Amino acid sequence: MLEVIRELLVGNLESGDRLEALIFSAIYLKWINTGQIPCFEDDSHHRPNRHAEISRLIFRELERIYCMKDTSPQEVLAIRKIHPCLPSFKAEFTASVPLTRIRDIAHRGDIPHDLKQEIKHTIQNKLHQNDGPENLVATEAMLARITRNPGQYSEAFVEKFKIFHHQLKDFSMLGNLTEQLESIKESFDDRSLSALTLFLECKEV
């Protein structure tokens, strides 16, 4: 998925082609993120950090275009539409082995063998092959299933899976606004931290 956008945007775009490329990229990513276009696996096998690395390349190119003197308001608008659709490239996702929790979960000794296999084939393997929203959908379906009857599965397993679900939402940039702000607050200066604190207080009122 992201390879298509990278090939379209990263490089020496002529100014006349730039707006069209940005618009097409924004539309394509929106359709992917809303499930209008399904992601299919090919025979390739990559760690999820590859998706994060490509996302970072695209983000850098968007920032480069954004800061150019001849960038039009329409191009700026298209860039703002693309940003929320890119997977996260925080340090934990660009490491050589990101999202390894699901691999550990699939090898736990306190869950049935058939459930292990289902987790491996419907979530773990697919996460290595594409970065589409189908991964999160499959994870949410599994979470709903293992929490439907409390006590059916070990509490430790369920808790680890909940953590993985939260991590995957973070990777997909689909966490709520509060979660996203909390995740980057370490980079805030004092003024920004004060603004964040005030925002959170107002949100709870």
Offer a quick outline of the entry.
The chain is mainly alpha-helical and 205 residues long. The chain is built from eleven helices and no strands.
What are the salient characteristics of this protein?
globular, 205 residues
What does this entry look like structurally?
- The mean pLDDT is 78.
- The N and C termini lie far apart (41 Å).
- With 205 residues, the protein is mostly helical.
- The radius of gyration is 19 Å and the shape is globular.
- The chain is built from eleven helices and no strands.
- Helix 1 packs parallel to helix 3, helix 2 runs parallel beside helix 4 and helix 7 runs antiparallel to helix 8.
Number of helices: 11
Roughly how many Å apart are the termini? 41 Å
Give me the count of strands. Answer: 0
Tell me the β content: under 5%
Report the helical percentage.
Answer: 55-70%
| Largest β-sheet summary | none
Gyration radius over CA: 19 Å
Secondary-structure element order, as H and E? HHHHHHHHHHH
Mean pLDDT: 78
Provide the low-confidence segments as ranges. Answer: none
Mass-distribution shape: globular
| Classification by helices and strands | mainly alpha
Could you outline the blueprint of secondary structure elements for this entry?
Elements (H helix, E strand, L loop, with lengths): L1 H8 L5 H19 L15 H18 L6 H10 L8 H4 L6 H6 L6 H17 L4 H14 L7 H17 L5 H8 L5 H15 L1
Helix pairs in contact: 1-3, 2-4, 7-8, 8-9
